[in-house]
């Protein structure tokens, strides 16, 4: 079946704009099945990757290991605040059990080759994660990214056996949507798009930038008609 570039663009735009963050408390069982997991993970491989370094990886935390993760969260809390209450410790442990399918995103920010800086590796990981979130949306599932102070704790690093060159960046949470949250407005293109002025050293006037953004928005709207 032949699909025109226009139809492909509309399909892609619809998918991208449909993605929403669904926090773990709004997710429910069942999580994705084996086939869906494979599709989500394969989507990550399409991310840009300088020199095919593959500086990122994903670690699944199965149900049998959630208690160990909860203990790591509690240990991290106690390292930060030895006076934490029992309720706070319980809340820390409970965070490990909220997501039907839970993955840890790990990025190798250091090591060879040393000409590929950490920010490029993190950018590649971010693209991989976004691909996964879009595939999740295409499958009709909900997803979110979560992190916190425990990400840099020795307890979490020990549990996941991270090397000195690796960083735990965030968790990916996936499941069915139990309670969708209210949609939030997206930022307008004019809020994050501008054009470099050809005059060296000339700072673009904010008013000119706003007008340029408005003209850009008008052009986009006209193209959609």
Architecture overview:
The chain has helices at 5-18, 34-44, 66-80, 86-94, 118-138, 154-159, 206-224; strands spanning 27-28, 56-60, 101-108, 142-146, 166-177. With 225 residues, the chain is an alpha+beta fold. The protein has two domains: 18-177, NADH Oxidase (3-Layer(aba) Sandwich); 189-224. It contains seven helices and five strands. The relative contact order is 0.18. Helix 2 (34-44) packs antiparallel against helix 5 (118-138) and helix 3 (66-80) crosses helix 4 (86-94).
Helix-strand blueprint:
Elements: H1 5-18, E1 27-28, H2 34-44, E2 56-60, H3 66-80, H4 86-94, E3 101-108, H5 118-138, E4 142-146, H6 154-159, E5 166-177, H7 206-224
Antiparallel strand pairs: 1-5, 2-3, 3-5, 4-5
Helix pairs in contact: 2-5, 3-4
Number of domains: 2
- What is the average per-residue confidence, as pLDDT, rounded to a whole number? 91
Counted beta strands: 5
Helix content: 40-55%
Attribute tags:
14% strand, single chain, 5-stranded antiparallel sheet, 225 residues, 2 domains, globular, NADH Oxidase, alpha+beta
Question: TL;DR of this structure?
Answer:
With 225 residues, the protein is of the alpha+beta class. It has helices spanning 5-18, 34-44, 66-80, 86-94, 118-138, 154-159, 206-224, and strands at residues 27-28, 56-60, 101-108, 142-146, 166-177.
